[in-house]
Amino acid sequence: MGALLLAVVAALPLLAQAQTAVAAGDTVLIVGDSLSAEYGLKRGTGWVPLLEKQLAGEKKNVRVINASISGDTTSGGRSRLPALLAQHKPTVVVIELGGNDALRGLPLDMTEANLRAMTQAAKKIGAKVLLLGMQVPPNYGGAYGATFSGLFAKVARAEKAALLPFFLKGVADVDDAVGNFQADRIHPNEQSQAKMLANVWPDLKKLLK
Description:
signal, SGNH_hydro, 7 helices, about 50% helix, Arylesterase, Ester_Hydrolysis_Enzymes, globular, five-stranded parallel β-sheet, Rossmann fold, alpha/beta
């Protein structure tokens, strides 16, 4: 009995080290809209589940929390973020919002202010931030399109956050892009999810421990 007790006591430091190792891993919080919420897709086929599979395959100690909601705007994300930060204590926050702001014609200065506030809130708890930039179709007008796409870079520069300039690069900006989308021509199809992950991964990987 005494020997067993000594063995248990001796093992405690090793257990503590293991727990510390687990605790030292990253938690990635993804706050997005339908592009990250698997809208219209079979569960497990979106770019976020593909990210989880890639992380597992590379044996990276990373927990992924997908807090994306279809139809969400930057205002919605901003209102939801404080509770998410308190609950999950992420080390990395990926912000994939803004597309619905443009689709609804919301003021771009409000979109910019929301993205800036979300970035600041994440940084305040020590998290790194990756902004996923978006673009609008040419029919929105050149000036509007340039201002919209530019606001992501503007926020990233001001807040020293990481930036993926265009989340749907290679999906929406190619010839015959319609084949990369679902019937609504708004949401990428299952075949496009790997490309979306490939766009995100290089920038996200730099932020992981």
